[in-house]
Amino acid sequence: MSVTPLRPRPVTNARTSVEVAAKLAQIFAKTAGDYDESAAFPHENIFRLHDAGLISLTASVEFGGAGAGLAEASEVIREIARGEPSTALILIMQYINLATLPKGRWPEHLARKVIGDAVENGALINAFRVEPELGTPLRGGLPATTARRTADGWSISGRKIYSTGAEGLTWAIVWARTDEAEPRVGGFLVPMGAPGLRIEKTWNPLGMRATGSHDVVLQDVWVPLDHAADVRPPSEWDTRGEGQAAWFGTLPGALYSGVAEAARDWLVGFLKERIPTNLGQPLATVPRVQQAVGEIEELIAINRRLILSAARDVDEGRPFTLSEAGLIKVVTTENAIAAVEKALKLTGNHGISRNNPLERHHRDVLCGRIHSPQEDVVRLSAGKLALGI
């Protein structure tokens, strides 16, 4: 689909951005089933987000963005995910990069280029880190993707998998090692239209089907010298890069909480309308059902409070550890999954029918377990920290 960029309409404050996101989510929900079935990239949704001023929400005001913090971004992501969660995941990656690039080691002119492109044209960016052999770098190891130094730049070759948003991106941050005797590792800024870069459409998952997370293959892709945006010895890297851990720990929980809320909303409508012959009144009047819905509300309420509390701590500069970030991600995604599973138990065959959206919400919410950091890594790290090991 060809989309003509629009000048974004600036979002003036947090309340406005969340309200705009909620209205867009209602629009996105109408075509969410179509995107799920086709696994097509949601170009139209991204177009609308840019038109509404939400694509560059977390870019700093200095760079032309709205300067939103993590709390506001979390609420926007939750609302968008209620409508179409694949779009929300693409937006998560955008928000994290736009918010954190200027605070890292990137040359300022590169950060301005990428962020200005997002503000003016709705350009998307994401980091490509995962590889067939390596898996996620969070579990350790050097990437096979290699940047070879040339006379006037870098020549990059390798394969990246699970490259969220690949079809719709303008920029990629490619995680690669140098070919030096003592390799350095880090992010190289690569235009998605660069010669030698191609997308192989391999993404065919159970849920979150419209994220366009295909394989990206690079064969002697040239970039200028300064596009080695942040390259350093492996020992100097933490597990996520400065500033990003809290965002990666919080925003996935917001997304999957939004999916759980969408499932809850459908369930409530079903329970009010469904009148079994032997009961003679809506299922919503049955105390056992009311209690079960209350259990779902409990999980959703805990998630919302936990996510907003953590996000505000980050925005206000209070201490926030890597361990806490991982635990919040695990707890909130597991709560969201439990909420949707409880909804399925209440609806029986109706819930798993492809004529209803609940089964889609279930498939989507299960993907929360896949995102890094994963449960075993998070809990092992937290346990070691508590034990002083």
Automatic annotation (TrEMBL):
<dbReference type="Pfam" id="PF02771">
    <property type="entry name" value="Acyl-CoA_dh_N"/>
</dbReference>
<feature type="domain" description="Acyl-CoA oxidase/dehydrogenase middle">
    <location>
        <begin position="131"/>
        <end position="221"/>
    </location>
</feature>
<keyword id="KW-0560">Oxidoreductase</keyword>
<dbReference type="InterPro" id="IPR052547">
    <property type="entry name" value="Mito_Isobutyryl-CoADH"/>
</dbReference>
<dbReference type="GO" id="GO:0016627">
    <property type="term" value="F:oxidoreductase activity, acting on the CH-CH group of donors"/>
</dbReference>
<dbReference type="InterPro" id="IPR037069">
    <property type="entry name" value="AcylCoA_DH/ox_N_sf"/>
</dbReference>
<dbReference type="InterPro" id="IPR013786">
    <property type="entry name" value="AcylCoA_DH/ox_N"/>
</dbReference>
<protein>
    <submittedName>
        <fullName>Acyl-CoA dehydrogenase</fullName>
    </submittedName>
</protein>
<dbReference type="InterPro" id="IPR036250">
    <property type="entry name" value="AcylCo_DH-like_C"/>
</dbReference>
<dbReference type="InterPro" id="IPR046373">
    <property type="entry name" value="Acyl-CoA_Oxase/DH_mid-dom_sf"/>
</dbReference>
<dbReference type="InterPro" id="IPR013107">
    <property type="entry name" value="Acyl-CoA_DH_C"/>
</dbReference>
<dbReference type="InterPro" id="IPR009100">
    <property type="entry name" value="AcylCoA_DH/oxidase_NM_dom_sf"/>
</dbReference>
<feature type="domain" description="Acyl-CoA dehydrogenase C-terminal">
    <location>
        <begin position="255"/>
        <end position="372"/>
    </location>
</feature>
<feature type="domain" description="Acyl-CoA dehydrogenase/oxidase N-terminal">
    <location>
        <begin position="26"/>
        <end position="93"/>
    </location>
</feature>
<dbReference type="Pfam" id="PF08028">
    <property type="entry name" value="Acyl-CoA_dh_2"/>
</dbReference>
<dbReference type="Pfam" id="PF02770">
    <property type="entry name" value="Acyl-CoA_dh_M"/>
</dbReference>
<dbReference type="InterPro" id="IPR006091">
    <property type="entry name" value="Acyl-CoA_Oxase/DH_mid-dom"/>
</dbReference>
<dbReference type="GO" id="GO:0050660">
    <property type="term" value="F:flavin adenine dinucleotide binding"/>
</dbReference>
<keyword id="KW-0285">Flavoprotein</keyword>
